Amino acid sequence: MTVPLFDLTRQYQMLRPELEAAALSQLASGAYVLGPAVDNFETLAAQFLGTKHAVGVANGTDALQIALRAAGFERGDEVITSPFSFYSAAEVVADLGGKPVFVDVDADTFNIGAAQIEAAITEKTRAIIPVHIFGHPAPMPEIMAIAQKHGLSVIEDCAQSWGATLDGKHTGTWGDAGTVSFFPTKNLGAFGEGGLICTDDEKIALKSKQLRTHGQSQQYIYDEIGYNSRLHALQAALLSVKLPHSQSFNDARRKHAAHYRELLANTPFVVPFERKGARHVYHQYTLRVPAEIGRQKVMGTLKERGIGHAIYYPKPLHLQPIFEDLGYKNGELPETERACREVLSLPIFPELREEEVEKVAAALKAAL
After folding, report:
1. What pLDDT score does 318 carry?
2. Is domain 8-103+110-244 annotated with CATH 3.30.390.10?
3. I need a labelling partner for 89 at 20 to 30 A (CA). Which of 195, 251, 265, 336 fits?
4. How high is the pLDDT of residue 342?
5. Where are the domains of the chain?
6. Above pLDDT 70, what percent of the chain?
7. How many whole angstroms separate alpha carbon 183 and alpha carbon 157?
8. Cβ distance 133 to 286 under 8 Å?
């Protein structure tokens, strides 16, 4: 028996009748760009998250870019974000002519550290993009207090945290806006690309809708340069089928995480941490392999036994070639760099089987 890092077909088979009925209905409707399916999904998403507005866009990266612009970002602005993340947040800041400013992460959660944020603020700082990495909420009360003190916008990157909460409040609803990715492997995944901007700010919502459709304020009237970034109607219809199941999917992820924790107790592996008041949704189950054990050795054993695994992320953003001009040096963000040397992600998805979790844990113990 091999254990895949993820298997998208299991969820499809479970929901197949509903998904195929929704797809055929949408194909028959003739409404393929925006329209009722997108409107309906935006309403469902806003209700689920508890926000006033939700705006569907083409993907999670576009969601970040559009939300930043809608919040008033301008060329030359600095944006503080995490160096231990996927490239998108830093990428869009640079693409818009701004400067990403990286600060170190917390050793326990891998999330951006609130204390480090305040120390990095300058007169050019415009916004903070906290990334809720691996599905664990960033320290939003502390981040919001800093943002309010200094008059900064907060755009939450919720690509990995659909359904995660902190003190009962969903990620994406703390800041000025939250951005979501519906990439197929996400906790709420589409059958292709998709993204969402959620906000309570009507101006941000309206500007986001304008920017996603070429910047037009009304048909064929263009006030600014925008994007062709609309959530596909077919994807919206399929996501509307999956959304009501997303809490139970996250519950299953949490159950698997608890099983891993139990099986890996009394081993040197450092299992994921969950802050008090946080509901971690385990987009990834990422543990630490202490340096004295050797991550490569562990990965070799997993490979031999057919266990899917991955490193998210092997090289931090502040040391990426594209950001050399920012002047960061090795050792400057030590917790981030240590995480990149030690992290290892294991199979976790809702349809994972109990015996598969046990096989993964047995392989890890064998590597010791």
Report:
1. 98
2. no
3. 251
4. 98
5. 8-103+110-244, 246-367
6. 100
7. 14
8. no
